[in-house]
Amino acid sequence: MSSQTISELVKTADQISIDEIKGKKVILKISWFDVKGVKKSKKFLLTEKDKIEF
Predict the structure, then answer these.
(1) Burial class (CB in 10 A: 0-12, 13-18, 19+), 53
(2) Strands in 1-54 per DSSP E
(3) Contacts of 21 (CB under 8 A, 6+ apart)
(4) Which residues partner with 47 through β-bridges?
(5) Most buried in the list 22, 24, 37, 50, measured by CB within 10 Å?
């Protein structure tokens, strides 16, 4: 997990959602629009002790 990438995407996110929960792990889906207006998304696997600042 690259927390810097997650933090950068959170700042420009159009939508943030929890895609799946498995025990102490969560798959977070972040969607955003690129400079051409095309919607993109990326999923991140987070564990219990990971932190994200909004």
Answers:
(1) exposed
(2) 15-22, 25-33, 39-47
(3) 27
(4) 25
(5) 50
Which positions ≥6 away from 43 have C-beta within 8 Å? 19, 27, 28, 29, 30
- The amino acid occupying position 19 is D
Beta carbons of 27 and 1 less than 8 angstroms apart: no
Q: Say what the pTM is.
A: 0.79
Q: pLDDT per residue over 1-53, tens digit each?
A: 555 588 888 888 999 999 999 999 999 999 999 899 999 999 999 998 888 87
What is the helix (H) or strand (E) element at residue 3, kind and residue range?
Answer: helix 3-12
> What is the pLDDT at residue 4?
58
